[in-house]
Amino acid sequence: MNYKSRKYVDLHVIDAVNEEWMKNGASEALMLRFFLRRTSIHIVSHLAWDVNSLQGVIAGVAGYRPQYCDPRKAIPYIHISCYGKKDGLNLGDSALMPWSQLSECLLPLQEKTDYNLPLSLSSCFGYYGAQLAKEISPKYKKRRPYYSLVGANDEIPIGILCDAFGILYYNLLVKFSSLKQSIQAARDKTGVPLGYTYGAVVAG
Prior knowledge:
By secondary structure, the chain is an alpha/beta fold. It has helices at 19-23, 28-35, 51-62, 99-112, 132-135, 158-173, 179-190; strands at residues 8-15, 42-47, 74-81, 83-85, 88-90, 96-98, 118-122, 148-152, 194-198, 201-202.
């Protein structure tokens, strides 16, 4: 995807860590705002603590810009910060949300963007979200769970993982490097084992 050609590229950061971390100010939206403070990247902050609140956030993102219905003009880039395991995500203090349930949550936004949604999962084992490609809901009209997915292959502390994503977004949305080049820059500077996929195809 050529992000440079879009009139609007909004980075929607969804903080969904548990209550203790929230009280200690562990907001990835704030950390990314600071990291990218000298750039023109438009960051929109959101908060989710369970599946219902995440569904509300996704509905809000879908209505954020009418232009999202034309992905050639505007794209919402979704970044979810939370705890994760190989078989799903933990939103706030709630139980594990399997990949199939995340697929259901994302569907309204996928339809709005004609299945061109870029997705980052800033969690331990976020790269395992590639399982979405196997577990997407039958309601999806296109067999593509996202345009691209980026996540870590291992357990990574939140601060280091946030730095890696900051470098990724700087390269991808400021320098307009390719996703592959941006991932490599983040890997080289932080050592975080980020992986990425395009649609149902594992790319790296």
